[in-house]
Amino acid sequence: MKALMFGWEFPPHILGGLGTASFGLTRGMVDCGDMDITFVIPKPWGDEDKSFLKIIGANCTPIAWRDHSEEYVQQRIGYCTEPKEYFHLRNHIYADFNHLGYLNDLGCIEFSGRYPENLLEEINNYSIVAGVIARSDNFDVIHSHDWLTYPAGIHAKKVTGKPLVIHVHATDFDRSRGNVNPTVFGIEKDGMYWADKIITVSEMTRQTVIDKYHIDPRKVITVHNAVEPVSPEIEAIVPIRNTKDKVVTFLGRITMQKGPEYFVEAAHRVLQRTKNVRFVMAGSGDKMNEMIRLASARGIADRFHFTGFLKGKQVYEMLKSSDVYIMPSVSEPFGISPLEAMQVGVPSIISHQSGCAEILTNVIKIDYWDIEAMADAIYSIVTYPAMYEHLKIEGKNEVDQIVWEKAGQKVIDIYKEVLGWR
Predict the structure, then answer these.
(1) Per-residue pLDDT tens digits for 16-31
(2) 192-221 per-residue burial string, b: 16 or more CB within 10 A, e: under 16
(3) SS3 125
(4) Structural contact between residues 349 and 324, judged by C-beta atoms closer than 8 angstroms
(5) Which pLDDT belongs to residue 89?
(6) What is the largest CA-CA distance in the chain?
(7) What is the distance between the alpha carbons of residues 404 and 406, in angstroms, rounded to a whole number?
(8) In 10 A of CB 71, how many CB atoms?
(9) Fold exhibited by the domain 2-226+404-419
(10) Pair 36, 2: CB distance under 8 Å
(11) Do 364 and 379 contact (CB within 8 A), yes or no?
């Protein structure tokens, strides 16, 4: 079976959980056997793992040739990292150039590979390229990851008639705490309308899709995320500890959705009871400066540290150097980071308002707004060795069973359903 997937990011160049989930799921599906995946992203950087799938860059896919000979085009193709078969589209000059972004001399649209200010324009351009790719490839099913790629999936479905599966990693209700952007809502709603099947990463997200977007429940199915096995390189990482104090870590985007202010307030409560704890907020985001000011206002700046954005090996260096990991998210469709912490033996505290709370047992669960309960949980783990050891050992045993192959098989079964295969 062959799937044409549309994503927005792919490791090692990621800015959130979307790329991590896309990588894990695709590899898990391929490990299930008889699965051929072509994964499209706006702009590959050249160091992505292509050992188990084919990666196509929208920025390397010509939608039209402009005033150049065939010989010139063939010479220039050699400078692009993508497979040459995607450059035979010379005759598919169907796009309205008045609605395109900048075209380079090979007739390709430029993409930032990020989340730029003109994001909606890039989403639209991405959907145009998706139509070209869909016309030039053979596949059984289309799979779009998150709202940024829904227009691409819809366009691919319109030009080929192939079934469309969309993967809801989050909704704008999660990102905005209810203050929904009508444009984003419209894109999400349109994707759900055109989809033959909708995959959500948690039952919480499934209910949001049903209730807020008025989608038939029979069309929506939950496939919980999982976690990649710890590699030998990660196993070999030595914790960096410059203090005998206990270390409690928040690791993620410092945005409203992640509840960083509740973490700071809980830290203040803990430090009123003991001084042998340090708190780390690892990440970046629009509320970072506000959190720095809040920590200062609470008088805990000497015990509160900001690392900035971490990636790759740095993430695991931080986790392995921690005694407690906490994710106090206000609305978290799933949340892979607690699973990663548990993999390396770090006891975790998560909010009831996170999708991973549906499948995790050996963690402490609190409501994001309950600062006293959060502080009590932190204090208990750093104070009572028996509790720490139990969560460390049993948490790792539990999360080691949550593998991407199981999620991948569920997605393959969904493909078979929409294709009418038995």
Answers:
(1) 789 999 999 999 999 9
(2) bebbbbbbbbbebbbebbbebbebeeeebb
(3) helix
(4) yes
(5) 40
(6) 75
(7) 5
(8) 8
(9) Rossmann fold (3.40.50)
(10) yes
(11) no
Average pLDDT, integer, range 90-115: 62
pLDDT tens figures, 283-321: 999 999 999 999 999 999 999 999 999 988 899 999 999
Residue 97 has pLDDT above 80, yes or no: no
Residue count of the chain: 422
Q: Identity (one letter) of the amino acid at 95?
A: A
Task: Read off the pTM.
Answer: 0.88
Tell me the Cα Rg of the chain.
Answer: 23
pLDDT band, residue 238 (cuts 50/70/90): confident
Q: Where in the chain is the domain with CATH 3.40.50.2000?
A: 2-226+404-419, 232-399
CA pair distance 41, 398, nearest whole angstrom: 33
Tens digits of residue pLDDT in 338-387: 999 999 999 999 999 999 999 999 999 999 999 999 999 999 999 999 99
Could you tell me how far CA 259 lies from the centroid of its own chain? 18
d(CA 229, CA 57) in angstroms, rounded, equals 27
pLDDT per residue over 175-226, tens digit each?
A: 887 789 999 999 999 999 999 999 999 999 999 999 999 999 999 999 999 9
Q: Report residue 178: phi and psi, to 5°.
A: 95, -15
Q: How many alpha carbons lie under 13 Å from residue 152 in its C-beta half-sphere?
A: 32
3-class DSSP state for residue 407?
A: helix
CB 38 within 8 A of CB 2: yes
Q: What does the alpha-carbon distance between residue 324 and residue 13 come to, in Å, rounded to a whole number?
A: 27
Q: How far apart are CA 390 and CA 386, in angstroms?
A: 6
Half-sphere exposure for 148 (CA within 13 Å, toward CB): 22
Per-residue pLDDT, 299: 97
Domain 232-399 bears CATH identifier 3.40.50.2000? yes
Q: Which two three-digit tokens encode residue 78?
A: 């050699």
What are the DSSP E strand ranges found in 313-394?
A: 324-327, 348-351, 364-366
Which residue reads 């990663």 in tokens? Answer: 340
Q: Output DSSP code: residue 312.
A: T
How far apart CA 13 and CA 38 sit, in angstroms, is 18
Tokens of 401: 């069973």
Average pLDDT, whole number, for the chain? 90
